[in-house]
Design a protein that fits this description.
Blueprint lengths: L1 H12 L18 E2 L3 H11 L20 H11 L8 H8 L3 H13 L3 E5 L2 E2 L5 E2 L2 E6 L1 H6 L3 E3 L6 E4 L5 H12 L38 H5 L20 H15 L8 H7 L1 H5 L4 H9 L12 H8 L3 H4 L3 H31 L5 H29 L13 H13 L1 H11 L1 H8 L1 H11 L11
Helix pairs in contact: 2-3, 2-7, 3-5, 9-10, 9-12, 12-15, 16-18, 17-18, 18-19, 18-20, 19-20
Length: about 450
């Protein structure tokens, strides 16, 4: 009895050393050819025992040892009359990747369970020939179970085994007789609840219909908590930066006429800085059209023209207030352009009768204010002109300078009149750069553009 226990312990401690590539051929192997597939599967289960850890792969890539996938591939090889398992066949049959098949066939060769009879490769006419293997039983398996053989080389045949090893051989034979199946996933593939034929499906009527039972490993360890199916949240999905760019591009294509046939990914890339800064599509259109209306001859591609006109605008209008002023000025210029094209008759016809007197009074007030501002600018020009025709603002007192700056802060048109009368340099000296730039943003006019007539 003591000898059998010592023998069993010796069997459990026997290792399966890796075989060098030069010894993985039929002419150089130390193992013997398996008489049938069942006998070969007993050696497979012995080498792949996860508790004994008899074999460890020497490759730096792939799995470190044999697992259930190795047993599946070995089972397919054992059922073949000629052991010629093509990689494409195993991929299609087992639904695994080509790299996985190569890893596990390499482990079977390294463990001494498969040897080359002929090695496949590319032959004539570009075809790939599969390798032909021989199913072998390594010498370590015979030594672990004290199996006696007769004959020489790979043609050796077993004639007996030690009494103490027969019990372990019986266990391995029963494992080899069972069909190896793919292990079940511990968690369901989809997020839906499971259904069975006995229950007739899960409709959510029962409280336990949507729950997932805990795994056996957690129950065995005493852990009572188990994952439950997550409930879908009702909050709307938030767009990331890329989604916001494409959303802005789609809005521009749908609403801006001259961008109707542009490519959405191209527009998203062009307007990426504006989208990241939180611009609306109306602000992008205003920034692109502030230099003037779009003509068909401006550019071959609308996207190219948009890229040219949007260059650096996200830095020029960095704040939300600046963008609002720019959009307001652009809308005002569009309105004035529409008024010039339609004429005052068309505008008055669109205005209700009860508001006609109010509009007329407002227009009279605007005309009076513009007349006053023109007179003030003319007086300033006359007061600052020399006999040679040059302008001089040095003669103005501090009170007069402050009064001019007050007029410029209240009405941008006053700044335009001074720019025409004094020039850009003296007007900026008198009114400061901040007031002039602010007025130009509001008017969206250059210093040489004529003033729109009422």
């Amino acid at each position: 009895m003591g000898d059998s226990r010592q023998k069993s312990a010796a069997e459990q401690g026997t290792q399966c050393p890796p075989i060098a590539p030069a010894c993985q051929w039929l002419s150089t192997t130390t193992g013997r050819i398996a008489t049938d597939g069942h006998t070969w599967m007993t050696a497979i289960h012995w080498a792949a025992d996860p508790k004994a850890k008899r074999y460890t792969s020497t490759s730096s890539h792939g799995p470190r040892g044999m697992n259930a996938t190795t047993l599946l591939i070995a089972q397919e090889c054992a059922n073949l009359k000629e052991c010629r398992p093509g990689i494409e066949y195993l991929v299609r049959k087992l639904l695994i990747s080509e790299r996985t098949v190569e890893y596990h066939l390499g482990m079977l060769r390294e463990a001494g369970l498969l040897v080359y009879r002929t090695k496949g490769g590319r032959v004539a006419h570009g075809r790939d020939e599969a390798s032909v293997y021989e199913r072998t039983i390594p010498l370590a398996f015979d030594e672990a179970h004290s199996i006696r053989t007769t004959g020489e080389g790979v043609q050796r045949r077993p004639v007996g085994a030690a009494e103490a090893a027969r019990k372990s051989l019986g266990k391995l034979a029963r494992k080899a007789a069972r069909k190896v199946r793919r292990p079940r996933r511990r968690t369901p593939v989809s997020g839906q609840s499971r259904c069975t034929l006995m229950e007739g499906g899960s409709t959510g009527a029962f409280p336990a219909a949507g729950s997932i039972p805990p795994s056996e490993t957690k129950l065995a360890s005493g852990d009572s908590s188990h994952p439950t199916q997550k409930k879908p949240t009702s909050r709307p999905r938030t767009l990331n930066s890329v989604g916001r760019r494409h959303q802005l591009a789609r809005q521009l294509i749908d609403n801006v006429p001259w961008l109707s046939r542009a490519s959405a990914p191209r527009i998203a890339w062009i307007a990426r800085h504006c989208a990241d800064a939180g611009w609306q599509w109306q602000e992008v259109q205003a920034a692109a059209e502030e230099a003037g209306p779009i003509d068909d001859m401006d550019s071959r591609r609308p996207s190219g023209l948009l890229a040219y006109r949007l260059k650096g605008v996200h830095k020029l209008y960095a704040s939300e207030k600046a963008r609002h002023l720019m959009l307001t000025a652009w809308e005002d210029s569009r309105l004035r352009e529409r008024i010039r094209h339609q004429g005052w008759d068309g505008v008055d016809a669109a205005i209700p009768e009860q508001h006609t007197s109010t509009v007329a009074a407002a227009m009279d007030a605007i005309r009076a204010a513009r007349h006053t501002q023109a007179l003030s600018a003319a007086d300033l020009t006359g007061a600052t002109e020399h006999s040679e025709g040059d302008t001089n603002i040095e003669t103005l007192s501090r009170a007069e300078v402050l009064e001019h700056r007050k007029f410029a802060a209240d009405d941008p048109t006053y700044v335009r009149n001074l720019l025409e009368a004094l020039g850009d340099r003296d007007a900026r000296r008198l009114l400061t750069n901040r007031l002039v730039d602010k007025a130009l943003v509001l008017l969206r006019l250059n210093t040489t553009d004529p003033a729109p007539a009422f």
